[in-house]
Amino acid sequence: MKWSRIAASLPFVATAGVAARDLTQKDHSLLRNFPVLGHARYGLELIGPELRQYIVASNDEERPFNRDQRAWIYRSAKGVNNYIGFGTDNDMETLQGYPIIKHRTFARSMAAETEDHAIPCAKVLGGARGRAKAFRPRSVVNVSAMSFGSLSGNAIMAINAGVHLAGAMHNTGEGGLSTYHRQGGELILQIGTGYFGCRDENGEFDLERLVAVVESAPVKAIEIKLSQGAKPGLGGVLPGTKVTKEIAEIRGVVEGKTVVSPSRHTAFHDEDSMLDFVERIATRTGLPVGIKSAVGEMAFWHRLADLMSSTDGPRRGVDFITIDGGEGGTGAAPIVFSDSVALPWAVGFSRVYKTFYEAGLSDDIVFIASGKLGLPLAATQAFAMGADMINVAREAMLAIGCLQTQKCHEDTCPTGVATQNKWLAHGLDPQQKKHRMANYVLALRKDLLKISDAIGVAHPALIGPEDLELMDGVRRGVALDEVFGYPEGYGRLGLDLAAEIERIMVEGDFVHLGGENEDNRETAATEQPTR
């Protein structure tokens, strides 16, 4: 009886202790004025994203990805029916800037049917510049840069094994090439301002270390990151809580200390020296070399196009350009950078694309689009505006289990995707999630082929800006070429490129398009729905 009375009094003692602490502390006015009860407010704030996800927000309200978008990714990744019934629940009467695809009444089916819905790139990456290891990417859908460190090792393994199944490529991110990236998937090696994995003892770029890394893995191309949508002009940040001993060894940094990448490169300082840097790497490795950037001022792009089109001296140039949207992405950043620095993807991409088209270089460059484009409608708009491939990041995270709790920077990701906490990461099984990654890529490619077929073309890159309109509610629609100032022909492939990719798609000539034979890879198995 004595012990039961003591146990019964414990909640009161604990509450009194909390109240005493609240009344005497000076950090939080709310708690000092409303001891104990004030904690309810902080609790609600803590679970605010979850409350909005499941209780408050409608299917179309939530950001960055609304419920309908997440549901399509989840169901696609699980390999189950991703159709909807009873019509759209979008408020068509009030939507501004909503893209509508214009199908053709008598369009003819063109692309060959394949089990993995293959869509190779319409251009040969590095072909225009005669790179020794130029190749045609086998997939127009690939995984964007997300470093080991920002993502867990299990997440990286699942993504890399998944792209291997789907015949896609995986960008390493600027954090270096880890053991987790070596699950069979082909890689694009990213070089950031910190030169992680290819830096010397002083943190400067080391070409020979880069060569050694490239030769140790299936690296197909190299991407030099100038900036990214999440924090353009700011540099990368990896919180110290995520800098484990393993990550410190891979990157060549101090364990437990926040890693801040410089905002600018030290290996080059302007467009001219950057092109020298590109050619130096391409010559030494034989690989295609490109750049990634969000778009701010346009002077950089005009000078780059002028240098690449110049006939004075040796020809220099980048093989691909990845344009990232300023809307933000997987990287943690100050809110002003995520919200307000760099142009939104569509505006930035259209300006850069027009610059190189006017310089006569658009057919020589592979344009890669990145920034919340891993959904069929957004991807279609990207191809219509001149993109040759798209990169997906947050969509890939969702495919392997992300719940959009937006705790990526806190090392507390509950599904083990964006954390270095071993217990949390343990919850993500790479062997199971690799199939979900592959299924998602296949589902997106399948829908892109369906859309292309409805428009009457064999490949998404053959969709033009006049094939989509941006709607002003139900009052009027304006074609993309008019919205973004594209004269006739802009956003379109050259005649030779268009004819070649149409032949490939119609004849189903997908074997040896820049990698191993499709028959040598494990099948991307579908799964039954799980809760």
Automatic annotation (TrEMBL):
<protein>
    <submittedName>
        <fullName>FMN-binding glutamate synthase family protein</fullName>
    </submittedName>
</protein>
<dbReference type="InterPro" id="IPR013785">
    <property type="entry name" value="Aldolase_TIM"/>
</dbReference>
<comment type="similarity">
    <text>Belongs to the glutamate synthase family.</text>
</comment>
<dbReference type="InterPro" id="IPR002932">
    <property type="entry name" value="Glu_synthdom"/>
</dbReference>
<dbReference type="Pfam" id="PF01645">
    <property type="entry name" value="Glu_synthase"/>
</dbReference>
<dbReference type="GO" id="GO:0006537">
    <property type="term" value="P:glutamate biosynthetic process"/>
</dbReference>
<dbReference type="InterPro" id="IPR024188">
    <property type="entry name" value="GltB"/>
</dbReference>
<dbReference type="GO" id="GO:0015930">
    <property type="term" value="F:glutamate synthase activity"/>
</dbReference>
<feature type="domain" description="Glutamate synthase">
    <location>
        <begin position="138"/>
        <end position="457"/>
    </location>
</feature>
